[in-house]
Amino acid sequence: MLSLDIRYLPTQTMEDIVAQIESVTGNNVHLNMYSKPVKTEESDPFITLLRPIIERNTKQDAVIFGQHGSADTVFFAAYGIPAIEFGPKGENWHGDRECVNLESVAVYQKMLVDFASEFVLN
Description:
42% of the residues lie in helices and 3% in strands.
């Protein structure tokens, strides 16, 4: 038995991926679980609100991009709630010597406070 963890793009479907695997394995696929990919538009009002906060606090352009992997964003997206993943700087995620830059945690905290403050002030 072979176990696969496949993260697929918003332009693909779980059914397409399973069909591709079945074409190689001879229809011997057991699906344990899956979640749909998350795609939040850059033009989303929450992203539009967050971008300048990131830029102001990091003093860098906010770069929004898609990547492989999975996060709690899938649970929000399942209910139509826009979600992106961002956070403090670090290295070696989920591996040996995983670490976080402590200075960036303070910057991240400030971004979250600033973002929440936008809702209180408006």
